[in-house]
Amino acid sequence: MRHDEIIGKVQALAHLPDRGSTERATQSVLRTLAERLPTGLADHLAAQLPPDLAAYIRETTASATSEGRPSGAGEPFDLTAFAGRVAVRAGTTEETALRYCAAVLEVLDAAVSPEEMRKLTDALPSDIRELLPTGRADEPPS
Known about the structure:
Radius of gyration: 14 Å
Strand content: under 5%
Number of helices: 8
Order of helices and strands: HHHHHHHH
Shape: globular
Oligomer: single chain
Low-confidence stretches: 138-142
Number of strands: 0
Mean pLDDT: 90
Largest sheet: none
Structural class: mainly alpha
Distance between the termini: 23 Å
């Protein structure tokens, strides 16, 4: 999926008014997700995204490693912390940040391989997994 397509879908799902706010929301979620995931998984996720979106993940994992986070380990935080970090980065409330998270994760579900999404799902705690779509976003309903 191309960058413009991802941003357009996030904008529609999150009900954002413009491209700038959608870029900020997407960046906020991807950076926070990169903090939560093990480095290798974050790198594999980044490899399936357009370069400019992948850069948010790679910059975050590189920064965490340089700050002393153990190589390969994601930070263990829950949904409340996840939403709080996204809210601070996006300059919004935690409630709105949760809407951004759900929208970005739904678009990611359609943008990356099913195997990658399974690995991502397995790496997240149950409260954050609740933000994920219940079925593959690119599959038509039965």
